[in-house]
User: What shape does this take?
Amino acid sequence: MDPDQIAALRAHYADVGLDEADLHAEPIAQFGQWLTEVIELGVPEPNAMVLSTADAEGRPSSRHVLLKGVTNEGFVFFTNYGSRKGVELAANPHASLCFPWFCIGRQVIVAGSVIKVTRPETEAYFTSRPRGSQLGAWASAHQSAVVPSREWLDAEYEAVNKRFADDVLVPTPPFWGGYRVRPETVEFWQGRGARMHDRLRYRRAPGDAGDAGWIIERLSP
Assistant: This one.
């Protein structure tokens, strides 16, 4: 593609505003409202989010993962502990999430610390997954590692399928589980005309217990 064509690409946002008075007092309640609206509008993969992590030297990496739970304690996703993101989170337990709902001119950006969810939480979610996805987790035991070919991957899957063929329930892999991003900031971004976007950010107020409430700030676009 011609570089000038790339430079000319732009979206024109409807002039739909976001005011402080529109927001809930808590970011999770506000997120729940926006997520419900996205789902009702039929936006594809409404729970897809960009997860950004960094290694011990601060070198970042990003990928899409799926949100699988959200409470006042944080945003939950599941993965292989030995994957690149898992290794980076072990070395640097902080992350950023971005929900890219550009088709309706919105984003939500979360930043915070990361902890593993409890083993019972992981097992409860793993049990709810389709069997094929359960087998896939076992077949991709060395997630993010270089593999010889697609045929090799297919053979790994078939081997796992045979291994658990007689099992009613596929056990949860010991190398697989959930993480919870505990938000320190949550930004709600609403596209506006002339690139004068509305950016309203919740920032956790100082407090020893971590439950001292939230400060809402408007950011320059």
User: Anything to note?
Assistant: Residues 27-40 form the longest helix (14 residues). The chain has a mean pLDDT of 94. The two ends are 29 Å apart (CA to CA). Helices lie at 3-8, 27-40, 84-91, 119-128, 131-139, 150-163.
